[in-house]
Amino acid sequence: MTAIRIFAEEGKSFLDLFLPLIDSEIERVLEELNENEYNEDADTDASCDKGEILS
């Protein structure tokens, strides 16, 4: 509760502190998901035989 009072006294809300952290964590997770999706596609492509149709 003390931390919330300090932020309130300085004119900052509780969310002002945590939104940048949340945004950066969301961005990190999305980048990781994109990398994993790319790696899975590469694994699938490499394991296909010639003449096989990729979906």
List the helices and strands and how they pair.
Blueprint (H helix, E strand, L loop, with lengths): L1 H8 L4 H34 L8
Number-wise, the strands total: 0
As residue ranges, the low-confidence spans are none
Proportion of helical residues: over 70%
Order of helices and strands: HH
Mean pLDDT: 71
Biggest sheet, open or closed, and with what strands and sense? none
Fold and architecture overview:
The protein is an all-alpha fold and 55 residues long. It has a domain at 2-38. Helices cover 76% and strands 0% of the residues. The chain is rod-shaped and about 65 Å long. The mean pLDDT is 71. Residues 35-55 are annotated as: Disordered. Residues 35-46 have a biased composition (Acidic residues).
Brief sketch in words of this structure:
Residues 35-55 are annotated as: Disordered. By secondary structure, the chain is mainly alpha-helical.
Keywords:
55 residues, mainly alpha
